[in-house]
């Protein structure tokens, strides 16, 4: 179980998370939605320990990563997680198989002789075959995402954190990745947090959906509850409308001022 | 006007202080991993090959020409004053072994391997590969920084020794071709006037340069922000800061060694 209490995260004078309270039950898939810059990815990084919360706590199975000091305890904590990065974050200098088994050396006691077969098994789980010796640069975007997913499950984690798993993929490949997330959930009984702003993906894979807005949890509920939400900000987001209480500038500059500048021939 | 100038000056000072602090933190973390002794030997060997073998042709060629031009200038100057080229071997060897060999090699390797390290680590940073290392159970300092630092500490002194040798050979070549100085005279100029401590003086400085170039390049790489443009900025900064620090630290290292009697 993952439990966040009053998590605040600031970078210098910028506060990204302003008090997140969230609980993810074992075996559940929680989807976090929200606009760009609302703190979704920052929250994931606080959960795995890449960022330490400025205040508040994140506990996984009762363990607070921010308080861990001993190297073995930290390794034990990380072993519980698989993390799928937005762009895959595959190591360019290694082959697909080397990428997949990379963490095994540090996270497990599995002998090296088994690495190759584990790489093939993980690839099969994400629907790939015979790509073990390819370099990431030789793969398509969708294949890279699958390999990254294979890498995140190689050490048999109890939790997988997905950071925008369908971003940058075509609609069909996005749906394939969604199916894979569901498949892994069924086969490996993994607890997951999926960060996305793809509502189709959110409805498909979520047990519950939490909407973040300006560093806070705006609403949390089942996909149906979110779909029928009466909160105008949630409605605007799930409908994908530019009109509503969440203000996004159409242009990041003063249109009248720029027109006047152009009219004067740039002499201002 | 004055206010904005002061604000910009203060902002610059704050940024410098922050960067220095982060550099010290990285150095502390690096020392901790070194003390623990859990070294990624395979990565270290790969880096030795990249930094050492790949830099060898360019460092050897640079020092060969440096030795040539030193011999050319020494011969011309001594001919001007004494009508004959004198002590060409001595001047070339002293200059190369104590100063130019270590400094030129460090600068060339900073431009080649230091830039490559900053660019590689910078790209890894902006594509989240460094975060991925963490999530896969290894510390980026242990896996990335230590092997590159160790490789520099082993390879730069070796490259410098080779550069010293090729530089002296360059001087010999010009002495013979341009001034008809017999090889035996050139060698005697060197061995009669030089002692082991002169070589040790230059050799010890290479460790200071190796640490500096490696840590600056590593730091600039892992602290990269802002995509492709950030990688470019880090790479340029790594080279400029490394080269400047090599020249600045050369003075202080020389003063220190002189004070210790290694001169």
What can you see in these coordinates?
The complex is a heterodimer of chains A (268) and B (263). Chain A has 268 residues and is an alpha/beta fold. Chain A is built from 10 helices and 10 strands. In chain A, the strands form 2 sheets. Chain A has a 6-stranded mixed β-sheet with strand order 6-7-8-3-9-10, with helices on both faces. Chain A is globular. Chain B is 89% helix and 0% strand. Chain B has one domain (42-259). Chain B starts with a helix and ends with a helix. Chain B is mainly α and 263 residues long. The chains are: A alpha/beta (268), B mainly alpha (263). The A-B interface holds A 45, 48-50, 75, 78-79, 81-83, 85-87, 89-92, 102-103, 105-107, 151, 155 and B 123-124, 127-129, 131-132, 134-138.
Number of strands of chain B: 0
Mean pLDDT score of chain B, rounded?
94
The proportion of strand residues of chain A reads 15-25%
Helix content bin of chain B: over 70%
| Quaternary structure annotation | heterodimer
What's the gyration radius of chain A in Å? 21 Å
Tell me the distance between the termini of chain A: 60 Å
Overall structural domain count of chain B:
1
The fraction of residues in strands of chain B falls at under 5%
The tally of helices of chain B reads 8
Overall average pLDDT of chain A: 88
Unreliable residue runs of chain A: none
Level of helix content of chain A?
Answer: 25-40%
* Contiguous helical run count of chain A: 10
What spatial order of strands do you see in the largest sheet of chain A?
A: 6-7-8-3-9-10
Low-confidence stretches of chain B: none
Biggest interface goes to: A-B, 24 and 12 residues
Distance between the termini of chain B: 51 Å
Derived structural class of chain A: alpha/beta
Largest sheet of chain B: none
Can you count the beta strands of chain A? Answer: 10
């Amino acid at each position: 179980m993952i439990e966040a209490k009053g998590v605040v995260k600031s970078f210098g004078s910028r506060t990204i998370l302003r008090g997140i309270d969230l609980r993810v039950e074992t075996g559940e898939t929680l989807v976090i939605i929200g606009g760009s810059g609302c703190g979704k990815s920052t929250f994931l990084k606080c959960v795995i320990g890449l960022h330490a919360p400025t205040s508040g706590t994140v506990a996984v199975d009762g363990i607070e990563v921010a308080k861990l000091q001993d190297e073995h305890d930290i390794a034990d904590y990380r072993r519980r997680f698989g993390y799928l990065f937005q762009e895959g974050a595959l190591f360019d200098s290694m082959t697909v198989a080397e990428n997949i088994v990379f963490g095994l050396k540090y996270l497990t006691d599995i002998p090296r002789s088994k690495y190759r077969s584990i790489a093939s098994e993980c690839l099969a789980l994400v629907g790939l075959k015979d790509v073990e010796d390819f370099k990431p640069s030789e793969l398509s975007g969708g294949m890279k995402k699958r390999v990254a997913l294979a890498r995140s499950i190689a050490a048999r984690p109890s939790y997988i954190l997905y950071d925008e798993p369908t971003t940058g993929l075509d609609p069909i490949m996005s749906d394939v990745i969604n199916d894979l997330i569901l498949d892994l959930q069924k086969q490996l009984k993994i607890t997951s947090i999926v960060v996305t702003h793809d509502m189709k993906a959110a409805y498909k894979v979520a047990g519950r959906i939490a909407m973040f807005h300006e560093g806070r949890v705006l609403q949390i509920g089942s996909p149906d509850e979110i779909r029928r939400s009466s909160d105008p900000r949630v409605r605007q987001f799930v409908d994908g409308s530019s009109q509503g209480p969440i203000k996004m500038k159409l242009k990041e500059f003063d249109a009248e001022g720029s027109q006047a500048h152009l009219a004067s021939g740039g002499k201002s | 006007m004055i206010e904005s100038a002061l604000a910009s000056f203060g902002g610059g000072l704050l940024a410098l202080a922050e960067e220095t602090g982060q550099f010290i933190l990285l150095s502390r973390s690096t020392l901790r991993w070194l003390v623990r002794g859990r070294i990624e030997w395979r990565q270290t060997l790969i880096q030795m090959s990249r930094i050492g073998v790949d830099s060898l042709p360019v460092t050897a060629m640079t020092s060969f020409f440096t030795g040539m031009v030193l011999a050319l200038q020494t011969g011309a100057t001594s001919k001007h004053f004494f009508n004959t080229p004198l002590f060409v071997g001595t001047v070339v060897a002293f200059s190369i072994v104590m100063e130019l060999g270590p400094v030129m090699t460090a600068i060339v390797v900073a431009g080649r391997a230091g830039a490559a390290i900053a660019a590689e680590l910078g790209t890894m940073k902006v594509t989240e590969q460094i975060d991925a290392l963490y999530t896969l159970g290894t510390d980026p300092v242990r896996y990335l920084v230590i092997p590159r630092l160790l490789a520099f500490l082993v390879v730069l002194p070796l490259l410098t020794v080779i550069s010293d040798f090729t530089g002296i050979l360059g001087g010999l070549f010009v002495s013979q071709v341009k001034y008809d100085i017999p090889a035996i005279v050139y060698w005697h100029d060197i061995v009669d006037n030089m002692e082991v401590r002169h070589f040790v003086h230059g050799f010890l400085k290479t460790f200071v340069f190796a640490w500096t170039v490696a840590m600056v390049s590593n730091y600039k790489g892992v602290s990269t922000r802002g995509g492709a443009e950030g990688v470019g900025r880090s790479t340029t900064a790594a080279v400029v800061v490394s080269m400047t620090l090599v020249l600045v630290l050369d003075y202080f290292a020389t003063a220190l060694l002189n004070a210790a009697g290694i001169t």
